[in-house]
Amino acid sequence: MEEEEKEEVKLEVKKQIKFLQRSLSVLPYSARSLDVNRMTILFFSVCGLDILNSLDTALRPYEREQIIEWIYSQQVLPQHIAGPDACCGFRGGGYLGVPFDSTKHSMPVPCDTAHVAMTYTALAVLIMLGDDLSRINRSAISRSLRNLQREDGSFQSMPFCGENDMRFVYSASCVCHILDDWSGIDVEKAVQFIRRSQGYDYGIGQMPHLESHGKCRRITTSTLSIFCKHAVTVYTAFT
């Protein structure tokens, strides 16, 4: 029996661009549960446009500026909170009802806190849009990361509660790399956490003793690559 010819799949670039543009403006009602993750949606939308080489044409200058200002309005600064520096960085969106222009008219908000993955995606989008990061409170973010790292080398997603696994080790390493400040992470502890997360099949899990996962392998490789730029001996110690 002859093998059936496989239909060639083509990427509908124009439709993809339109979808990503729409994701930056209007989301369906079914996406309401993602309100706390708006920064992540923004990241994938802008990143997608960039990969499709359409970022310059898909976003007008004023739209870029609006996005940049919105991102900065989600920055949790030391003067915004009445708690420890572990809260500083970026939140996932304006779900707390924080004023849009909070970077110019700061006010404390009860239960406000940053999220390490949202901090990473916020910084990444700012760079993709050409921002110089001049309004970032770098020292506060670095101190926050230091407080979020656990004894086993992993990172919590946010203070007081939240998950801790490989995703947030990757997010923290990206933040340190972007800010060029490694005072917020104990690299050796992080590498040991990665080593303990390697399974019998040489794959990597979210945490020690969990099943291997392709996503974890990818972000672990990326994390070690970032560490390698910081200290080559870290990677050779892992291998």
UniProtKB/TrEMBL annotation:
Cofactor names: Zn(2+)
GO cellular component: CAAX-protein geranylgeranyltransferase complex
GO molecular function: CAAX-protein geranylgeranyltransferase activity; metal ion binding
Record bears the keyword Zinc: yes
Organism: Geodia barretti
InterPro entries recorded: PGGT1B-like (IPR045089), Prenyltrans (IPR001330), Terpenoid_cyclase/PrenylTrfase (IPR008930)
Stated name of the protein: Geranylgeranyl transferase type-1 subunit beta
Signal sequence, renumbered to the chain: none
SUPFAM superfamilies in alphabetical order: Terpenoid cyclases/Protein prenyltransferases
Entry's family note: Belongs to the protein prenyltransferase subunit beta family.
Domain Prenyltransferase alpha-alpha toroid per the UniProt entry, residue ranges: 11-227
Keywords carried by this UniProt record: Metal-binding, Prenyltransferase, Repeat, Transferase, Zinc
Pfam families in UniProt: Prenyltrans (PF00432)
